[in-house]
Amino acid sequence: MSNGVETREFQAEARQLLQLMVHSIYSNKDVFLRELVSNASDALDKLRLESMVDKELDVDTSDLHVAIEVDKEQRTLTVRDNGIGMSRDDVVTLIGTIAKSGTAELLRKLRESQDASASQDLIGQFGVGFYATFMVADRVELVSRRAGEAGGTRWESTGEGTYTIEAVDDVPQGTSVTVHLKPEDSEDNLFDYTADWKIREIVKRYSDFIAWPIRMAVERTDAEGEATTEVQTLNSMKALWARPRSEVDEAEYQEFYKHVSHDWADPLEIIHMRGEGTFEYEALLFLPSHAPFDLFAREGRRGVQLYVKRVFIMDDCEALMPDYLRFVKGVVDAHDLSLNISREILQQDRQIRAVRRRLVKKVLSTVRTMMTEHPDRYRTFWTEFGRAVKEGLIDDTENRDTLLEITSLASTRDETELTTLAQYVERMKDGQADIYYMTGESRAMIENSPHMEAFRAKGYEVLVLTDPVDEVWIERVGEFDGRPLRSIAKGQVDLDTEEEKKTAEPEREQQRKDFESLLTWLGEQLSEQVKEVRLSSRLTTSPACIVGDAYDMTPTLEKMYRAMGQDVPSVKRILELNPTHPLVTGLRTAYEQDGDKEVLTETAELLHGMALLAEGGELSDPARFTRILADRLARTL
């Protein structure tokens, strides 16, 4: 080994990456310090493992730590560790080249990408975090000695395409990286990285839970004006998720929750879990006690924090939690991921998908346990987050059964208390095959709907669904516990028993004959508005109602799709008439007596319009409806 200074060129692709780094591909330059601290932490982990495996390795592991040193005059920042260190060959291999397959493809994508954040994600695929130092540095100096070796190595570069390397003596075991900082430039997000407050902020944000102490000498001035220097530990090293739950008290959990969620209230529920086997991880999750203001905002925060070996990687990791559980807060610490893993890679990672499945099942089983053991807490949870959870019924088929179990819905049984589907089924009448429901904009509108009349008269319970998401999931799910979910505003309704049907059949047959010609004529007159006019078995007091076919899209869902900019065809519905109502029987008499056809046509329009309004629908021509109604009222005076 030569003791002289040797100048080498970077591998061609590494040189191109350096240039890209210098031109601010990373929008957040603070990550350079995260990378250096993470590398130092890894070196300490490796030394501890090596000392356990190789009993002949003569190393001192009594005070393993990371030290950050600042020289404000020289504008340098040094990150030093007493870990495993590197040999000369290690330095050349790990720092001077990028021995990673696919680097050329990475460079091609970087050149094509016009989006800085997208470029950052691409860089994250190849573990080149050390090069981030050149975003903030004019020059970087690395000195390292591998544990068990006598001599060390010095590496230095300005990031312009070459580096120097030389052997050095009297080097302490471990690695130090000294960054000669560029001038501060706030417009380019280049901060003063010699400032104590900035270093503290970065360490607290990214490296607070690293297992090794991160120390820094800090100057203090006492009351008499004398300056003293004290060494402070910047990180808490308190990774609550890595400690057994029996060793963590409730106050610590609450404090940590407020730290990660920025919430002022205590969490509703704490979920502490560990995954072992082929992919190890720890998770500490929290169910909040109240919904955030941006729960339904498109730009709202999503997901939990992701750590890798106690190093903070990203906030709001959407890949770990489905959107319908976006309110869950906490951290997931994975052991086997790259520190630079990107959001794009996370979405495709098989192990991350496996962790996500386990997390979701754990959250849902926790809610299910809450239902039976802590009903008050469950009611709080469902009041705050039920509307979001129901979104999972649309797409999460794997957990749909569990979601249906924990879903609570309003019903006509009680104005204030919600019911589960299982409780509804327990109360079903003898011979009742379907679970009845109705969707609408409000409870009052549903309860006053003509569709409800026969169900109220017969004493059938009806689910009252007023959330917009109810329109979608109820159609997608279709059944619960083998019993169909059936809208009372669709299809034919017949609530009579077999005996009642036999008794009523002669009368119904006579009604069909009596009204046949009127129904045909009304169908012709209202052909632009409805697909059919028929007699109803669901009405007791109202003259008419509008119903859909069994598989028709509801008017509310139609409006929702149009509001989202989707062009959906208008669905013609069915007009049902109450054959015992005076208005309907009077219309039939007038028609049979060959009454004024224009007047009868206007009556038909009024009948259809009233049915639309009764269910909260919109008139196609409100002005015409109002004029006809006013004329009719005037004739009665």
Automatic annotation (TrEMBL):
<dbReference type="Pfam" id="PF00183">
    <property type="entry name" value="HSP90"/>
</dbReference>
<comment type="function">
    <text>Molecular chaperone. Has ATPase activity.</text>
</comment>
<feature type="binding site">
    <location>
        <begin position="125"/>
        <end position="130"/>
    </location>
    <ligand>
        <name>ATP</name>
    </ligand>
</feature>
<dbReference type="InterPro" id="IPR001404">
    <property type="entry name" value="Hsp90_fam"/>
</dbReference>
<keyword id="KW-0346">Stress response</keyword>
<comment type="subunit">
    <text>Homodimer.</text>
</comment>
<feature type="binding site">
    <location>
        <position position="175"/>
    </location>
    <ligand>
        <name>ATP</name>
    </ligand>
</feature>
<feature type="binding site">
    <location>
        <begin position="101"/>
        <end position="102"/>
    </location>
    <ligand>
        <name>ATP</name>
    </ligand>
</feature>
<keyword id="KW-0963">Cytoplasm</keyword>
<dbReference type="InterPro" id="IPR003594">
    <property type="entry name" value="HATPase_dom"/>
</dbReference>
<feature type="region of interest" description="B">
    <location>
        <begin position="344"/>
        <end position="559"/>
    </location>
</feature>
<feature type="domain" description="Histidine kinase/HSP90-like ATPase">
    <location>
        <begin position="28"/>
        <end position="185"/>
    </location>
</feature>
<keyword id="KW-0067">ATP-binding</keyword>
<dbReference type="InterPro" id="IPR019805">
    <property type="entry name" value="Heat_shock_protein_90_CS"/>
</dbReference>
<dbReference type="Pfam" id="PF13589">
    <property type="entry name" value="HATPase_c_3"/>
</dbReference>
<feature type="binding site">
    <location>
        <position position="39"/>
    </location>
    <ligand>
        <name>ATP</name>
    </ligand>
</feature>
<feature type="region of interest" description="A; substrate-binding">
    <location>
        <begin position="1"/>
        <end position="343"/>
    </location>
</feature>
<dbReference type="GO" id="GO:0016887">
    <property type="term" value="F:ATP hydrolysis activity"/>
</dbReference>
<dbReference type="GO" id="GO:0051082">
    <property type="term" value="F:unfolded protein binding"/>
</dbReference>
<dbReference type="GO" id="GO:0140662">
    <property type="term" value="F:ATP-dependent protein folding chaperone"/>
</dbReference>
<dbReference type="InterPro" id="IPR037196">
    <property type="entry name" value="HSP90_C"/>
</dbReference>
<feature type="binding site">
    <location>
        <position position="35"/>
    </location>
    <ligand>
        <name>ATP</name>
    </ligand>
</feature>
<keyword id="KW-0547">Nucleotide-binding</keyword>
<feature type="region of interest" description="C">
    <location>
        <begin position="560"/>
        <end position="637"/>
    </location>
</feature>
<dbReference type="GO" id="GO:0005524">
    <property type="term" value="F:ATP binding"/>
</dbReference>
<dbReference type="GO" id="GO:0005737">
    <property type="term" value="C:cytoplasm"/>
</dbReference>
<comment type="similarity">
    <text>Belongs to the heat shock protein 90 family.</text>
</comment>
<feature type="binding site">
    <location>
        <position position="86"/>
    </location>
    <ligand>
        <name>ATP</name>
    </ligand>
</feature>
<feature type="binding site">
    <location>
        <position position="343"/>
    </location>
    <ligand>
        <name>ATP</name>
    </ligand>
</feature>
<keyword id="KW-0143">Chaperone</keyword>
<protein>
    <recommendedName>
        <fullName>Chaperone protein HtpG</fullName>
    </recommendedName>
</protein>
<dbReference type="InterPro" id="IPR036890">
    <property type="entry name" value="HATPase_C_sf"/>
</dbReference>
<dbReference type="InterPro" id="IPR020568">
    <property type="entry name" value="Ribosomal_Su5_D2-typ_SF"/>
</dbReference>
<dbReference type="InterPro" id="IPR020575">
    <property type="entry name" value="Hsp90_N"/>
</dbReference>
<feature type="binding site">
    <location>
        <position position="100"/>
    </location>
    <ligand>
        <name>ATP</name>
    </ligand>
</feature>
<feature type="binding site">
    <location>
        <position position="81"/>
    </location>
    <ligand>
        <name>ATP</name>
    </ligand>
</feature>
